[in-house]
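Entry 14: structure prediction run for 2-oxoglutarate-dependent ethylene/succinate-forming enzyme. Input pasted below.
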Amino acid sequence: MAHDALPVIDIAPLRDPGDGEGRRRVAERIGEACRGHGFFYIAGHGIDPALQAALRDASRTFFAQPDEAKMRIAMSRGGRAWRGYFPVGAELTSGRPDLKEGLYLGTELPPDDPRVRAGWPLHGANLWPEHPAGLRRTVLDYMTAACAAAQAVLEGIALSLGLEADWFRRHYTADPTVLFRIFRYPPQPGGEDGWGVGEHTDYGLLTLLLQDDVPGLQVRTQGGWIEAPPLPDTLVCNLGDMLDRLTGGQYRSTPHRVRNAGGRERFSFPLFFDPDFTARVTPLPQHARIDPARVAADRADRWDGSSVLAPFDGSYGDYLLGKVGKVFPQLLGQVL
Ligand SMILES: O=C(O)CCC(=O)C(=O)O
Ligand SMILES: [Fe+2]
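Run finished. Output tokens:
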């Protein structure tokens, strides 16, 4: 499998408002990558390496505990906030149980937050483990740093579309929906079928993925599946369905999957940076007219048989809950 096809883009200029020329250059490369595979690596993202290392260490410590300790913060205790631990086999992507365990996290909201009081699904407090106690601070700091990097990438994407740099912040991410996950993939014996994560696309705007040093992520391209192995000092950035919809399919939310054939456990840390829960994501004016035949072709090609280009009347929150229902059928009754 090829593994050199995804570009590495240094986004440091996007974090420097004074560097107009550098920002234009980076935006151009981002635009190319978005029209290509919809997957690229970002360097120069500004997330402290010590913070990344602390996140990896604390995660290893948490997952190394016996099941009973982890199940003390099981997702079934997270209620409508949809947070907590789930064991191997509990999540179904593409209709089959994934070979991974994980911790579901997100923006930390106190019980008196108006959205929590109003009973909004997927909003609320995280479930933190007793051990290691430091996981809480580390995760919260990592989410803050990764969200800043995501806003910077979105500035590049806006510029690449001929929009003002702060266009996304003004229209869709003033109060972004942020979900963060820590996954542990046990090693899969060679030849066994089944996936760490089955084929899927991500739902929102951007995913920023930190990996440890074990490969496993695969990306579906026109020329077949390629690998997206860990590269030092980078994160993988990929586009979600909302960017695909906004651009009439010009910027791709590309299917991907995971198989951990590396013979060692694999950890990954995806942060999903998505539109405001109440936002209605509609195509940009220049992409508003879509040929129904394209929608049909997109539907036929998609992991769950639904096209991201089809007209959709609801909010981003409605879209997200529809997807959640498919991968966590047993939790849906609780979340909705
Ligand atoms: O673990 C990975 O490398 C990717 C996970 C993923 O694609 C997802 O959670 O959406
Ligand atoms: Fe994904």
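Notes: The chain has ten helices and 14 strands. Will compare against the previous run tomorrow.
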